[in-house]
Amino acid sequence: MFYDEVKVSFKAGKGGDGCFSFRRAKYEPKGGPDGGDGGRGGNVYIVGDTNVADLTDFHFKPGWQAKNGEPGRGSDQHGANGEHITLRLPVGTIVVDRDSGDPIAEVLEHGQQVLLLEGGDGGKGNAQFKSSTNQAPRQFTLGKPGEEGDFRLIIKTIADVGLIGFPNAGKSTLLNMVTNAHPKTGAYPFTTIFPTVGVLEYPEQYERITVADIPGLIEGASENRGLGHRFLKHVERCKVLVIMLDMEGTDGRDPLSDYRVLINELKLYMPGLARKPELICANKMDEPNAPENLKAFKKKVKEKVYPISCVSDEGFEELKQALLEAVLKVRAIEDAQEDESID
Ligand SMILES: Nc1nc2c(ncn2[C@@H]2O[C@H](COP(=O)(O)OP(=O)(O)OP(=O)(O)O)[C@@H](O)[C@H]2O)c(=O)[nH]1
Ligand SMILES: [Mg+2]
Question: What domains can you pick out in the chain, each with its CATH number?
């Protein structure tokens, strides 16, 4: 089972209480106040880690708490600070507030650390309240509670290109052939049950892009039917989408209706998704009915189509170059927008 969404509750440590104490020594029967301050509660940090594949650990243990600060002690002893905890999350994880649904934090890179919840301040010991007018203060304060919250952790895959299509279109086969990733492939639907990201290299151009294989979508995916819906979130952060069609129409499929359903599902899920640059890829061109189907398809759809075959490598080069071009275009736009926001 692949967990890309879990409910969790995290809590930072409470501050230790301040101490109320007076010095008592043999020849000092009325020694001054010496109650120390409490230690700070530990913080909760999250950090992105490419070695963490999914949220299984949090599914089985959804509650995490940082240590409380120790109370202050007599003889002016400060309580120890509570230990922080650092939770390692897959890169691309978003932390959402469970009540409001608002995103609180996200980790987008390996090693990126974010302070999620702050530990409470330690209380003040009575020694802190000594003044010229009050030599024997009886005040001290309690430690403050740490921040806490109920969250939803959601992985949203980060890749330049997202491959989407009906089950069995050949998405994983293509990823296997052109990238370093090796997702399972098979002649049955929903072979892929979690997104896999591979790197597509362009040695001559000194470029590389990342490509995500998304589990197959079905009609009604946007309404949460089948496996599809859970996985549409994984294309939200892709720069470019490849709509992969089985041009042979294996098992009675119709490429044109597949195309329309897929575009519609994207729109229904999130209008922004349908506005991303899309490349239409016609797979299985080695099969007997594919050329005829492609002709019919092109009559109805005016966008450029990239015919390929994962059996003969046909069309790979053209598709790869088109992907690079499309990704570089989006990167340039994003860079320009970033510069603008900095100015
Ligand atoms: N003839 C032919 N068969 C192909 C081609 N590409 C993939 N296949 C076959 O199609 C079947 C499905 O391929 P997958 O790559 O597992 O399909 P997928 O789109 O990843 O499917 P899901 O993971 O179920 O969504 C496998 O039996 C592949 O061998 C192709 O270009 N030509
Ligand atoms: Mg697959």
Answer: 1-155 (2.70.210.12), 161-342 (3.40.50.300)
